[in-house]
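To assess whether the prediction recovers the assembly geometry, we first specified each molecular entity separately, as shown.
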Amino acid sequence: MNHIAIEATGLTKKFGDVVALDGVSVSVPSGSVLGLLGPNGAGKTTAVRILTTIIRPDSGSARVLGYDVVSNASAVRYRIGLAGQYAAVDGNLTGRENLRLIGLLTQMPRNTIAARADVLLERFELTEAADRVVRTYSGGMRRRLDLAAALVHQPPVLFLDEPTTGLDPQGRLELWDVIRDLVSDGTTVLLTTQYLEEADKLADNIVVVDHGRIIAQGTPADLKARVGSTMIEIGLPDEGEAVRAKSVLARFSEDVEPDGRKVRMRINDGARVLIDVLRALDAAQLTPATMAVREPTLDDAFLALTGRQPEPRESPDRQAVAVGGA
Amino acid sequence: MTLTATSFPRPIEHNGLGRLVSAMSDILAVTWRNLLGYKRVPQLLVFSTIQPVIFVLMFRYVFGGAITVPGVSYVDYLMPGIFTQVVVFGSVGTAIGLAADLNTGLLERFRSLPMARPAVLAGRTTADLARNVFVVLLMAAVGFVVGFRVHTSAPEFIAGLALVLLFGYTFSWVFATVGLWVRDPESAQAAAFPVLAPLVFASSAFVPTNTMPDWLRVFAEHQPVSVTATAVRGLMLSGASTSDIVQAVAWSAAILLVFVPLAIWRYQRTA
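The predicted structure of the complete assembly is given in tokenized form:
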């Protein structure tokens, strides 16, 4: 399917003087995952809140499955699920009651709600805790219930706002599996994350946002390619050999620097050049003692794209909320 | 196991009359959820009853002896005021509950659901109305124990309680607005007292207004707590004056007319 499930054009949003979004456009094909990547306060949550009809954009427009998020918000709401950063479940209700509440409020046929809740509780390994009050749940359990709540009405489009923030590594991996399952069933997912690795692992396409603007977009591979290059680090028995190695390797890359007994080089298309590098070293009778190949991470990408490390700043969303959210 | 099995039907998209029916069912669902909250955290209910019981005992036995109200025993004068005061103070719970839901992100989730827009507020205030029924009946029982007697008839007594409950429901909408505005439970509580103290104490709820200085008396006799307490007193003690009841209902209606739209407007802009 090549239909566009989520389409946003020129979204802007200001909270007081803080510009949260400054002309963001995204397009998410049906059945794919878009990763909205950026530091805290980049505008990711604001974008999600607009796309889920919670707030209106100041300008620009967005459609979900063809329905405008402002003029046809109600139709959008039937078709989306939202799991946020805060595990928005009711602590005084049991897990099962929480899902029942969402089932009622999403206008599920009443006689199907209980069975649907059972399936979700089972899938998220909450069956045993199903009849316990949620305030007794661990953070990870609350998160799983929160995601289950977003899925009660089987939304074809799912918004996940930093779904793994605060989860332990095991919990993150489990959640990634769930997301992959949903996608393989045809669900379209827009997820925001500060974890570059997460976007890399899950997303078909990544949009990098910073200060409310898109600073880069493409597939994870595209972005890595834009950063340039693979880093190859070769350790040699002594510094003399390292200097010799440097002159041998100079013909592969302009960016070769010796560092004591090590030589570091950056090359495009690293994996394919690697064999030639080894042959050349062998021909020069140099035998590497150690060798490391590092593909660029999205951290590197962020550095290359913005000239700085992704640093969190005060979120304009939350800040604005604190002073009244107008 | 698949999470999007087609064996489950999709949500029903309502229109026309169906929308109205589903709006009612949304309100009931939210009411159910809030009442479960009172069941799971009974402290909320217990604390909201201890304070008024203390008021009854304090005014009945500590201050009451020093207060003379012509033509009526003080406990009979007091209890209609207590009923009114109890629902007014209790309405702060509406603000606290909504502010808490705002903080946990629950309201944000509700706003992304295909539910009737006002259902969150209507469900909250309906649950708080149910709580008030319980609290008011409990206070009536306490009143009877300390010597309160109805001098009219059972239907008039019940009408008086109904008037009290209407007033409490009205104030729930006032504090729904406050809760959405201040956004956190502690602030809601803090914001409530300066508003409520003058309304409840500069009133005829506990003492007759005739000893107050003129400027205060004018306020005290016409503000909604006094007007409601007077009407309830009439219904329970001396036979109702129609004009008192009309005034009391008019106050509630006027406040609802302002604060229901205000709270809904605020809800739609908040999150």
